[in-house]
Amino acid sequence: MENVPKLNEKLEKYFALTKKAIGKVKISSKITPEDRKKAEEILDLAKRYYEDARFFEKKNDLVNAFAAVCYAHAFLDIGALMGLFDVDDDQLFMVEKNYRKRH
Q1: Could you tell me the pTM of the whole model?
Q2: What is the C-alpha separation between 25 and 102, in angstroms, rounded?
Q3: Where are the domains of the chain?
Q4: Across the chain, what does the average pLDDT equal?
Q5: pLDDT exceeds cutoff 60 at 84
Q6: In angstroms, what CA-CA distances link 92 with 12, 17, 23, 45, 62?
Q7: Which of 7, 12, 36, 85 sits most deeply, having the most CB atoms within 10 A of its CB?
Q8: Mind listing the pLDDT tens digit for each residue in 17-31?
């Protein structure tokens, strides 16, 4: 289990990153009511997966904790890429300023 310290380091890094990202996400005011509902669902999923990750961590199930926190952050990235979330931090989110203009 020599990789456990590395996994713990990665987990703490991703927990901190994802918690910060969840705190910065704002649902876009420029979307339709239907898209707002989708944005709320995606944000809810991100929060639930983050909570699941913490639950797995407490059970010392580090592999599932890591998987869940990665899913949580992926949901945030998806919402940002789809234009459902207003984000301006390309260090926390998988976005670049001109992404939507190109696609």
Answers
A1: 0.85
A2: 23
A3: 4-102
A4: 89
A5: yes
A6: 15, 7, 11, 17, 22
A7: 85
A8: 999 999 999 999 999
